Amino acid sequence: MTAVSVIGAGAFGTALAVALAAKSPVTLWGRDVAWPRENPRLPGVALPDALRLTDRLQDALAQTVLLALPAQVLGGFLADHAAALDGRNLISCAKGIDLQTLQGPSALIHAACPAATVGVLTGPSFAADIARGLPTALTLACADAATGEALQARLSTGALRLYRTTDVTGAELGGALKNVIAIAAGAAIGAGYGDSARASVITRGFAEMTRLATALGARPETLTGLSGLGDLVLTCTSEGSRNFRFGLALGAGRDFTPGTTVEGAATARAVAALAPKLGVELPISRLVAGLAEGRIAMEHALDILLNRPLKEE
Ligand SMILES: NC(=O)C1=CN([C@@H]2O[C@H](COP(=O)(O)OP(=O)(O)OC[C@H]3O[C@@H](n4cnc5c(N)ncnc54)[C@H](OP(=O)(O)O)[C@@H]3O)[C@@H](O)[C@H]2O)C=CC1
Ligand SMILES: O=C(CO)COP(=O)(O)O
Protein backbone atom coordinates (compact mmCIF):
# COMPACT_ATOMS: atom_id res chain seq x y z
CA MET A 1 0.00 0.00 0.00
CA THR A 2 1.32 3.44 -0.91
CA ALA A 3 1.39 6.26 1.69
CA VAL A 4 -0.85 8.45 -0.46
CA SER A 5 -3.70 7.52 -2.76
CA VAL A 6 -5.93 9.55 -5.03
CA ILE A 7 -9.61 8.75 -5.51
CA GLY A 8 -11.04 9.98 -8.79
CA ALA A 9 -9.16 9.49 -12.04
CA GLY A 10 -10.40 12.59 -13.80
CA ALA A 11 -8.07 15.30 -15.05
CA PHE A 12 -7.25 16.66 -11.60
CA GLY A 13 -6.88 13.39 -9.71
CA THR A 14 -4.61 12.03 -12.43
CA ALA A 15 -2.52 15.21 -12.51
CA LEU A 16 -2.05 15.15 -8.73
CA ALA A 17 -1.13 11.48 -8.80
CA VAL A 18 1.44 12.10 -11.58
CA ALA A 19 2.96 15.01 -9.63
CA LEU A 20 3.11 13.15 -6.32
CA ALA A 21 4.54 10.03 -7.95
CA ALA A 22 7.70 12.06 -8.64
CA LYS A 23 8.29 11.90 -4.89
CA SER A 24 7.01 8.49 -3.81
CA PRO A 25 4.68 5.77 -5.16
CA VAL A 26 1.01 6.73 -5.43
CA THR A 27 -2.15 4.72 -6.06
CA LEU A 28 -4.84 6.25 -8.30
CA TRP A 29 -8.37 4.86 -8.14
CA GLY A 30 -10.94 5.36 -10.90
CA ARG A 31 -14.12 3.47 -11.67
CA ASP A 32 -12.84 2.84 -15.20
CA VAL A 33 -9.10 3.02 -15.66
CA ALA A 34 -8.81 0.61 -18.59
CA TRP A 35 -7.35 3.28 -20.84
CA PRO A 36 -5.28 2.02 -23.75
CA ARG A 37 -2.35 4.34 -22.98
CA GLU A 38 -3.10 7.64 -21.29
CA ASN A 39 -6.11 9.14 -19.48
CA PRO A 40 -8.33 10.65 -22.19
CA ARG A 41 -9.30 13.34 -19.66
CA LEU A 42 -5.64 14.37 -19.48
CA PRO A 43 -4.28 13.81 -22.99
CA GLY A 44 -0.57 13.91 -23.68
CA VAL A 45 0.46 13.00 -20.13
CA ALA A 46 2.51 9.83 -19.69
CA LEU A 47 1.79 7.93 -16.49
CA PRO A 48 4.98 7.25 -14.49
CA ASP A 49 5.87 3.77 -13.24
CA ALA A 50 5.49 4.97 -9.63
CA LEU A 51 1.77 5.55 -10.27
CA ARG A 52 -0.33 2.44 -9.65
CA LEU A 53 -3.74 2.43 -11.28
CA THR A 54 -6.65 0.48 -9.84
CA ASP A 55 -10.42 0.18 -10.05
CA ARG A 56 -10.54 -1.74 -6.74
CA LEU A 57 -11.19 0.71 -3.93
CA GLN A 58 -9.73 -1.57 -1.25
CA ASP A 59 -6.38 -1.32 -3.08
CA ALA A 60 -6.46 2.49 -2.86
CA LEU A 61 -7.04 3.09 0.82
CA ALA A 62 -3.82 4.72 2.02
CA GLN A 63 -3.59 6.63 5.31
CA THR A 64 -3.75 9.86 3.29
CA VAL A 65 -6.44 9.89 0.59
CA LEU A 66 -6.97 12.76 -1.83
CA LEU A 67 -10.62 12.88 -2.92
CA ALA A 68 -10.55 14.35 -6.43
CA LEU A 69 -14.17 13.78 -7.41
CA PRO A 70 -16.55 16.50 -8.61
CA ALA A 71 -18.43 18.14 -5.71
CA GLN A 72 -21.84 16.92 -6.87
CA VAL A 73 -20.81 13.24 -6.83
CA LEU A 74 -18.75 13.34 -3.61
CA GLY A 75 -21.73 12.93 -1.25
CA GLY A 76 -22.94 9.78 -2.99
CA PHE A 77 -19.44 8.33 -3.10
CA LEU A 78 -18.96 8.97 0.63
CA ALA A 79 -22.33 7.42 1.43
CA ASP A 80 -21.31 4.26 -0.45
CA HIS A 81 -17.80 3.98 1.00
CA ALA A 82 -17.84 5.77 4.40
CA ALA A 83 -16.82 2.75 6.45
CA ALA A 84 -13.77 2.04 4.30
CA LEU A 85 -12.67 5.70 4.30
CA ASP A 86 -13.27 6.62 7.94
CA GLY A 87 -10.28 7.15 10.25
CA ARG A 88 -7.92 8.30 7.47
CA ASN A 89 -6.61 11.69 6.40
CA LEU A 90 -9.23 12.62 3.79
CA ILE A 91 -8.25 15.62 1.66
CA SER A 92 -10.94 17.11 -0.54
CA CYS A 93 -9.80 18.50 -3.88
CA ALA A 94 -13.32 19.37 -5.09
CA LYS A 95 -14.29 22.97 -5.81
CA GLY A 96 -18.01 23.22 -5.28
CA ILE A 97 -20.94 23.29 -2.86
CA ASP A 98 -23.22 20.26 -2.73
CA LEU A 99 -26.61 21.22 -4.13
CA GLN A 100 -28.53 18.67 -2.05
CA THR A 101 -27.19 19.66 1.35
CA LEU A 102 -25.84 23.18 0.60
CA GLN A 103 -22.62 22.09 2.32
CA GLY A 104 -19.02 22.13 1.19
CA PRO A 105 -16.96 18.95 0.70
CA SER A 106 -15.31 19.13 4.14
CA ALA A 107 -18.69 19.08 5.92
CA LEU A 108 -19.83 16.16 3.75
CA ILE A 109 -16.69 14.25 4.71
CA HIS A 110 -17.08 15.10 8.41
CA ALA A 111 -20.68 13.90 8.38
CA ALA A 112 -19.91 10.62 6.56
CA CYS A 113 -16.57 9.85 8.23
CA PRO A 114 -16.54 11.36 11.74
CA ALA A 115 -13.25 9.71 12.73
CA ALA A 116 -11.38 11.04 9.69
CA THR A 117 -9.01 14.01 9.71
CA VAL A 118 -10.36 16.35 7.05
CA GLY A 119 -8.28 18.58 4.82
CA VAL A 120 -8.77 20.65 1.69
CA LEU A 121 -6.30 21.07 -1.18
CA THR A 122 -7.19 23.99 -3.39
CA GLY A 123 -5.79 26.99 -5.26
CA PRO A 124 -4.91 28.13 -8.77
CA SER A 125 -3.86 25.06 -10.74
CA PHE A 126 -4.88 23.62 -14.06
CA ALA A 127 -4.53 19.85 -14.13
CA ALA A 128 -2.45 20.04 -17.31
CA ASP A 129 0.03 22.43 -15.64
CA ILE A 130 0.45 20.24 -12.56
CA ALA A 131 0.85 17.10 -14.66
CA ARG A 132 3.55 18.77 -16.77
CA GLY A 133 5.46 19.69 -13.61
CA LEU A 134 5.01 23.44 -14.07
CA PRO A 135 5.51 25.50 -10.88
CA THR A 136 2.26 25.73 -8.91
CA ALA A 137 1.34 27.06 -5.45
CA LEU A 138 -1.68 25.67 -3.62
CA THR A 139 -3.34 25.95 -0.21
CA LEU A 140 -3.55 22.96 2.12
CA ALA A 141 -6.19 23.58 4.80
CA CYS A 142 -6.55 21.47 7.93
CA ALA A 143 -8.17 22.58 11.20
CA ASP A 144 -5.53 20.69 13.18
CA ALA A 145 -2.34 22.73 12.73
CA ALA A 146 0.09 19.88 13.43
CA THR A 147 -1.60 17.50 11.00
CA GLY A 148 -1.77 20.30 8.44
CA GLU A 149 1.98 20.80 8.74
CA ALA A 150 2.64 17.08 8.29
CA LEU A 151 0.34 16.94 5.25
CA GLN A 152 1.96 20.05 3.80
CA ALA A 153 5.35 18.33 3.92
CA ARG A 154 4.00 15.04 2.58
CA LEU A 155 2.16 16.57 -0.39
CA SER A 156 4.62 19.31 -1.46
CA THR A 157 7.00 18.46 -4.30
CA GLY A 158 9.77 20.35 -6.08
CA ALA A 159 7.25 22.04 -8.39
CA LEU A 160 4.13 21.92 -6.20
CA ARG A 161 4.49 24.37 -3.31
CA LEU A 162 1.83 24.08 -0.61
CA TYR A 163 0.99 26.86 1.80
CA ARG A 164 -1.00 25.84 4.87
CA THR A 165 -3.92 27.31 6.77
CA THR A 166 -6.27 26.14 9.50
CA ASP A 167 -9.20 27.94 7.83
CA VAL A 168 -10.84 24.99 6.07
CA THR A 169 -14.10 26.88 5.43
CA GLY A 170 -12.36 29.84 3.82
CA ALA A 171 -10.09 27.72 1.65
CA GLU A 172 -12.83 25.49 0.31
CA LEU A 173 -15.30 28.33 -0.26
CA GLY A 174 -12.69 30.36 -2.17
CA GLY A 175 -12.24 27.45 -4.58
CA ALA A 176 -15.96 26.81 -4.92
CA LEU A 177 -17.14 30.40 -5.33
CA LYS A 178 -14.52 31.48 -7.85
CA ASN A 179 -16.04 28.98 -10.29
CA VAL A 180 -19.35 30.87 -10.17
CA ILE A 181 -17.66 34.20 -10.83
CA ALA A 182 -15.60 32.65 -13.65
CA ILE A 183 -18.83 31.76 -15.44
CA ALA A 184 -19.94 35.40 -15.12
CA ALA A 185 -16.57 36.65 -16.39
CA GLY A 186 -16.75 34.28 -19.35
CA ALA A 187 -20.30 35.39 -20.10
CA ALA A 188 -19.21 39.05 -20.09
CA ILE A 189 -16.44 38.31 -22.59
CA GLY A 190 -18.63 35.96 -24.66
CA ALA A 191 -21.31 38.63 -24.94
CA GLY A 192 -18.74 41.16 -26.12
CA TYR A 193 -18.90 43.45 -23.07
CA GLY A 194 -15.11 43.76 -22.97
CA ASP A 195 -12.21 43.57 -20.56
CA SER A 196 -13.36 46.51 -18.40
CA ALA A 197 -16.63 44.70 -17.72
CA ARG A 198 -14.69 41.55 -16.87
CA ALA A 199 -12.56 43.48 -14.36
CA SER A 200 -15.78 44.71 -12.70
CA VAL A 201 -17.13 41.17 -12.54
CA ILE A 202 -13.90 39.92 -10.95
CA THR A 203 -13.84 42.72 -8.36
CA ARG A 204 -17.51 42.74 -7.45
CA GLY A 205 -17.49 38.93 -7.62
CA PHE A 206 -14.64 38.86 -5.13
CA ALA A 207 -16.72 41.07 -2.82
CA GLU A 208 -19.55 38.51 -3.09
CA MET A 209 -17.19 35.62 -2.38
CA THR A 210 -15.90 37.39 0.72
CA ARG A 211 -19.40 38.30 1.96
CA LEU A 212 -20.70 34.76 1.65
CA ALA A 213 -17.58 33.03 2.95
CA THR A 214 -17.30 35.24 6.04
CA ALA A 215 -21.02 34.78 6.74
CA LEU A 216 -20.25 31.05 6.81
CA GLY A 217 -17.34 31.51 9.23
CA ALA A 218 -14.34 32.00 6.92
CA ARG A 219 -11.52 34.38 7.80
CA PRO A 220 -11.51 37.28 5.31
CA GLU A 221 -7.73 37.07 4.77
CA THR A 222 -8.08 33.50 3.52
CA LEU A 223 -10.13 34.84 0.62
CA THR A 224 -7.25 37.11 -0.42
CA GLY A 225 -4.94 34.09 -0.66
CA LEU A 226 -4.27 31.46 -3.30
CA SER A 227 -7.52 29.62 -2.72
CA GLY A 228 -9.67 32.73 -3.23
CA LEU A 229 -8.23 35.66 -5.13
CA GLY A 230 -5.45 33.56 -6.66
CA ASP A 231 -7.81 31.03 -8.19
CA LEU A 232 -10.32 33.73 -9.12
CA VAL A 233 -7.69 35.52 -11.20
CA LEU A 234 -6.63 32.32 -12.96
CA THR A 235 -10.11 31.11 -13.74
CA CYS A 236 -11.55 34.45 -14.88
CA THR A 237 -8.70 35.16 -17.27
CA SER A 238 -7.87 31.85 -18.93
CA GLU A 239 -9.66 29.78 -21.52
CA GLY A 240 -7.97 26.84 -19.82
CA SER A 241 -10.88 27.05 -17.36
CA ARG A 242 -13.99 25.03 -18.14
CA ASN A 243 -16.11 27.38 -16.02
CA PHE A 244 -14.83 30.38 -17.98
CA ARG A 245 -15.41 28.56 -21.30
CA PHE A 246 -18.94 27.61 -20.20
CA GLY A 247 -19.55 31.31 -19.49
CA LEU A 248 -18.09 32.26 -22.88
CA ALA A 249 -20.56 29.90 -24.56
CA LEU A 250 -23.48 31.26 -22.52
CA GLY A 251 -22.53 34.83 -23.38
CA ALA A 252 -22.12 34.09 -27.07
CA GLY A 253 -25.28 31.97 -27.26
CA ARG A 254 -23.27 28.90 -28.30
CA ASP A 255 -23.74 25.29 -27.19
CA PHE A 256 -21.25 23.84 -24.70
CA THR A 257 -19.73 20.34 -24.78
CA PRO A 258 -22.08 18.12 -22.75
CA GLY A 259 -20.54 16.06 -19.97
CA THR A 260 -17.86 18.63 -19.17
CA THR A 261 -17.31 19.19 -15.44
CA VAL A 262 -18.48 22.78 -14.77
CA GLU A 263 -18.63 23.03 -10.99
CA GLY A 264 -19.77 26.68 -10.99
CA ALA A 265 -23.18 25.90 -12.52
CA ALA A 266 -24.49 23.75 -9.65
CA THR A 267 -22.57 25.79 -7.09
CA ALA A 268 -24.27 28.99 -8.29
CA ARG A 269 -27.61 27.34 -7.61
CA ALA A 270 -26.44 26.28 -4.16
CA VAL A 271 -25.21 29.79 -3.47
CA ALA A 272 -28.52 31.29 -4.62
CA ALA A 273 -30.30 29.00 -2.15
CA LEU A 274 -27.91 29.89 0.68
CA ALA A 275 -27.91 33.67 0.18
CA PRO A 276 -31.40 34.45 1.57
CA LYS A 277 -30.86 32.11 4.53
CA LEU A 278 -27.72 34.07 5.45
CA GLY A 279 -29.09 37.50 4.55
CA VAL A 280 -26.25 38.28 2.11
CA GLU A 281 -26.70 39.98 -1.23
CA LEU A 282 -25.04 38.14 -4.13
CA PRO A 283 -26.31 39.64 -7.39
CA ILE A 284 -23.68 38.15 -9.73
CA SER A 285 -23.95 34.66 -8.28
CA ARG A 286 -27.76 34.76 -8.40
CA LEU A 287 -27.58 35.87 -12.01
CA VAL A 288 -25.25 32.99 -12.87
CA ALA A 289 -27.71 30.60 -11.19
CA GLY A 290 -30.53 32.03 -13.33
CA LEU A 291 -28.46 31.75 -16.51
CA ALA A 292 -27.35 28.19 -15.70
CA GLU A 293 -30.95 27.13 -15.01
CA GLY A 294 -32.21 28.89 -18.15
CA ARG A 295 -34.54 31.10 -16.05
CA ILE A 296 -32.75 34.24 -17.21
CA ALA A 297 -31.87 34.96 -20.83
CA MET A 298 -28.43 36.40 -21.56
CA GLU A 299 -29.93 39.48 -23.24
CA HIS A 300 -31.54 40.46 -19.91
CA ALA A 301 -28.48 39.76 -17.74
CA LEU A 302 -26.79 43.11 -18.12
CA ASP A 303 -29.96 45.08 -17.37
CA ILE A 304 -30.52 43.05 -14.22
CA LEU A 305 -27.08 44.01 -12.91
CA LEU A 306 -26.98 47.62 -14.10
CA ASN A 307 -30.52 48.60 -13.07
CA ARG A 308 -29.96 47.90 -9.38
CA PRO A 309 -29.95 50.97 -7.08
CA LEU A 310 -26.63 52.85 -6.96
CA LYS A 311 -24.67 52.17 -3.78
CA GLU A 312 -21.42 52.75 -1.92
CA GLU A 313 -18.53 50.52 -2.85
N1 LIG B 1 -9.25 19.95 -13.89
C1 LIG B 1 -8.63 20.90 -13.18
O1 LIG B 1 -7.78 21.64 -13.72
C2 LIG B 1 -8.93 21.09 -11.74
C3 LIG B 1 -10.02 20.47 -11.13
N2 LIG B 1 -10.28 20.69 -9.81
C4 LIG B 1 -11.44 20.11 -9.17
O2 LIG B 1 -11.32 18.70 -9.14
C5 LIG B 1 -12.61 18.10 -9.13
C6 LIG B 1 -12.62 17.02 -10.19
O3 LIG B 1 -12.47 17.67 -11.43
P1 LIG B 1 -11.76 17.01 -12.70
O4 LIG B 1 -10.83 15.93 -12.31
O5 LIG B 1 -11.22 18.13 -13.48
O6 LIG B 1 -13.02 16.39 -13.44
P2 LIG B 1 -13.08 15.47 -14.72
O7 LIG B 1 -14.29 15.86 -15.47
O8 LIG B 1 -11.79 15.49 -15.45
O9 LIG B 1 -13.27 14.01 -14.12
C7 LIG B 1 -14.32 13.69 -13.27
C8 LIG B 1 -14.00 12.33 -12.69
O10 LIG B 1 -14.99 11.98 -11.75
C9 LIG B 1 -15.36 10.64 -11.98
N3 LIG B 1 -16.71 10.39 -11.52
C10 LIG B 1 -17.83 11.03 -11.88
N4 LIG B 1 -18.88 10.52 -11.21
C11 LIG B 1 -18.39 9.54 -10.40
C12 LIG B 1 -18.96 8.66 -9.46
N5 LIG B 1 -20.26 8.68 -9.19
N6 LIG B 1 -18.15 7.78 -8.83
C13 LIG B 1 -16.85 7.75 -9.09
N7 LIG B 1 -16.23 8.56 -9.97
C14 LIG B 1 -17.01 9.45 -10.61
C15 LIG B 1 -15.25 10.49 -13.48
O11 LIG B 1 -15.17 9.13 -13.80
P3 LIG B 1 -15.48 8.60 -15.29
O12 LIG B 1 -14.30 9.05 -16.11
O13 LIG B 1 -15.59 7.14 -15.10
O14 LIG B 1 -16.76 9.28 -15.71
C16 LIG B 1 -13.95 11.23 -13.74
O15 LIG B 1 -12.85 10.40 -13.50
C17 LIG B 1 -13.60 19.24 -9.38
O16 LIG B 1 -14.20 19.63 -8.18
C18 LIG B 1 -12.73 20.37 -9.93
O17 LIG B 1 -13.25 21.66 -9.62
C19 LIG B 1 -9.46 21.45 -9.05
C20 LIG B 1 -8.36 22.06 -9.60
C21 LIG B 1 -8.02 21.92 -10.99
O1 LIG C 1 -9.99 25.06 -10.56
C1 LIG C 1 -9.36 25.16 -11.59
C2 LIG C 1 -8.10 25.92 -11.68
O2 LIG C 1 -7.63 26.27 -10.42
C3 LIG C 1 -9.87 24.54 -12.82
O3 LIG C 1 -10.88 25.34 -13.29
P1 LIG C 1 -12.06 24.74 -14.19
O4 LIG C 1 -12.76 23.70 -13.39
O5 LIG C 1 -12.88 25.93 -14.51
O6 LIG C 1 -11.42 24.16 -15.42
Report on the biggest sheet.
8 strands, mixed
Q: What is the domain tally?
A: 2
Spatial gap, N to C terminus? 54 Å
| Residue runs with pLDDT of under 50 for 5 or more positions | none
Principal-axis shape:
globular
The side-by-side strand order for the widest beta sheet comes to 3-2-1-4-5-6-7-8
Relative strand content: 5-15%
What order do the helices and strands follow? EHEEEHEHEHEHEHHHHHHHH
What gyration radius follows from the Cα positions, in whole Å?
Answer: 19 Å
Enzyme class: oxidoreductase
GO molecular function, one term: NAD binding
Protein name: Glycerol-3-phosphate dehydrogenase [NAD(P)+]
Family: Belongs to the NAD-dependent glycerol-3-phosphate dehydrogenase family.
Descriptive labels:
alpha/beta; Rossmann fold; N-(1-d-carboxylethyl)-l-norvaline Dehydrogenase, domain 2; 8-stranded mixed β-sheet; 13 helices; 8 strands; binds NADPH dihydro-nicotinamide-adenine-dinucleotide phosphate; binds 1,3-dihydroxyacetonephosphate
Write up what this structure looks like.
- The chain has 313 residues and is an alpha/beta fold.
- The protein folds into two domains: 4-166, 3-Layer(aba) Sandwich (Rossmann fold); 169-307, N-(1-d-carboxylethyl)-l-norvaline Dehydrogenase, domain 2 (Orthogonal Bundle), CATH 1.10.1040.
- The chain is built from 13 helices and eight strands.
- It has an eight-stranded mixed sheet, sandwiched between helices.
- The longest helix is centred in the middle third of the chain and has 23 residues, at 168-190.
- The protein is globular, with a radius of gyration of 19 Å.
- The structure holds NADPH dihydro-nicotinamide-adenine-dinucleotide phosphate and 1,3-dihydroxyacetonephosphate (13P).
- NADPH dihydro-nicotinamide-adenine-dinucleotide phosphate binds at residues 8-13, 30-32, 41, 68-71, 73, 76-77, 93-96, 125-127, 261, 263.
- It is found in: Cytoplasm.
